[in-house]
Amino acid sequence: MICTIGTQNKAKIQAVKNACEKAGVIFDFQPFPAESDVAAQPISDEETRQGAINRARHALRETESEIAIGLEGGVKWIEGTLYLCNWGALFTRDGETFTAMGAGLPLPEEIAEGIRAGQELGPLMDLYTNKQNIRHNEGAIGVFTNGLIDRSAMFEHIVLQLIGQWMRQKSVV
């Protein structure tokens, strides 16, 4: 069975592979550069969730896969504090749709200032850490959890939720 992953981001691709291995689900994986059709920097749970849904939908429509997974990272404001937010969606050729959300934690004010000014989290994190491609590696979650959770592990948790829902639905039907 082919599972299309609606991204070229290596942290997200690894998350899907790891989650499927843990769940005992065997797929042939096909990364696909699916568009999110939301802002480059989603700024709400709703927009971030929609980005994940759009990535999964595009990946399924544009490929021959039986399953497509879309993952999207964003930020959201809660009582004046900026938090990470992360969402995933799984679409099947049979018309099933599953969504799940993941970890979130508060971000420093200097990151919030950049988001307010219209910047994206990925480039802000590169500046903040003086590294490149944080979004493809540890991500903001890795930086702000002192490496205890990296971006791949965070998305892996979301994918496990998606696959668990899909597996349960298959066993109930």
Describe the structure.
By secondary structure, the chain is of the alpha/beta class. The chain has one domain: Maf protein (Alpha-Beta Complex). The protein is 44% helix and 21% strand. The protein has 6 helices and 5 strands, in the order βαβαβββαααα. β3 and β4 form a beta hairpin. The longest helix has 22 residues. The model has no long low-confidence stretch (mean pLDDT 95).
pLDDT under 50 segments (min length 5)?
none
Radius of gyration over alpha carbons? 16 Å
How big a fraction of the residues is strand? 15-25%
Counting copies of identical and different chains, the oligomeric state is: single chain
- Structural class by sheet pairing and helices: alpha/beta
Q: Going across the biggest sheet, name each strand in turn.
A: 2-1-3-4-5
| Overall number of domains | 1
CATH structural fold name: Maf protein
Mean pLDDT: 95
- Total E-strand runs: 5
CATH class: Alpha Beta
What CATH architecture would you give?
Alpha-Beta Complex
Number of helices: 6
| Fraction of residues in H or I helices | 40-55%
Largest sheet: 5 strands, mixed
Shape: globular
Distance between the termini: 19 Å
Secondary-structure element order, N to C: EHEHEEEHHHH
